Amino acid sequence: MQYYRYCRTLQKRGEEGLRDKIKDGNYTKLTERIKDYIVSTVKENRSISSSHVQSKIINQFDAKISVSCLNNFRASESLTRLPAQKEKEYKRQKSGGCEILTSLAFFTHISELFTRTIIERANEVRQSPLFEQNENIIRTSARMGNSLKSTINP
Predict the structure, then answer these.
(1) How does 110-120 read in b/e, with b if 16+ C-beta sit within 10 Å?
(2) Domain residue spans of the chain
(3) How far apart are CA 107 and CA 117, in angstroms?
(4) What is the pLDDT of residues 118-136, one digit of tens each?
(5) All residues at 6 or more sequence positions from 80 whose CB lies less than 8 Å from its CB, including other chains
(6) Which CATH architecture has domain 24-83?
(7) 133-151 pLDDT tens trace
């Protein structure tokens, strides 16, 4: 039977018709190791394309499996490709941070506590000997400044 096909091809197309037209050779059949590899790769990333799986198989096993063969195997194992989940786009919104902090401050009366603490500390500083000493220096220099002004501008 094969002989008659060759004869007919030779008559119709000549010698060129008998040449092997498969460029890359025959595709390799799926071995168990390759099947396991496909299953683990696809389970890890369900959105991976079969052409990407094909290139991973070439790198890992140096074997070329057709994309249609991969698709058929994926379908038989219920590992069809799922669309990649798009990350939700978040729109920038004005921050409510200040409003939250302000509300918490009023609710906990912390602003009153801060105010009281600052006033108490300011009073402590005013009553300290160093503050009185600095106050005297300021008064003295102010008096001297006034006397200098009067001598410069008679």
Answers:
(1) eeeeeeeeeee
(2) 24-83, 97-152
(3) 18
(4) 999 888 888 888 877 877 7
(5) 74
(6) Orthogonal Bundle (1.10)
(7) 877 788 787 777 655 455 5
